[in-house]
Specification:
With about 120 residues, the chain is mainly alpha-helical. It folds into two domains: about 60 residues, Orthogonal Bundle (Arc Repressor Mutant, subunit A); about 45 residues. About 60% of the residues lie in helices and about 5% in strands. Strands 1-2 form a two-stranded antiparallel sheet. The longest helix has 25 residues. It is elongated, with a radius of gyration of 18 Å. The mean pLDDT is about 90.
């Protein structure tokens, strides 16, 4: 498992870890039941505080991505991948609702929004 930390990112380190592990799960690089490095070993590998790594793991566990078994370690959750995907779809919907509310304030048309989304989509590939 390879995690890259950016000190120039505005995102906190624990969120960078959490986001990258979530992405590894979604892409299938980490599968249900796979063991994660211990909190201590990941902290040493990344040269960061154990507290930061612990916070990332707690966030992942709270979101249902991993399960921690005392004295055994942390593992990719056996929860249904579809349930996790639904959570992300709901998050996207919530963000799109915010965008629609802002667009309505500016009287942007649906075509304008589609054009903006297409440009952003194409530039983010």
């Amino acid at each position: 498992m390879r995690i890259i930390i950016s000190n120039t990112s505005g995102e906190p380190i624990y969120e960078q870890i959490s986001t990258q592990i979530k992405n590894l799960i979604f892409t299938g690089e980490l599968s249900e039941g796979d063991a994660l490095p211990s909190i201590r070993s990941l902290a040493q590998e990344l040269k960061i505080s154990v507290i930061t790594t612990k916070r990332a793991y707690e966030e992942l566990e709270g979101d249902g991505f991993i399960e921690t078994i005392p004295s055994k370690g942390s593992y990719v959750s056996r929860k249904n991948k579809e349930l996790m995907k639904e959570k992300h779809l709901k998050l996207i919907e919530d963000k799109l609702i915010e965008v629609l509310e802002e667009a309505n304030l500016l009287n942007l048309s649906l075509d304008d929004l589609k054009d903006m989304l297409q440009i952003l989509y194409d530039s983010n590939k």
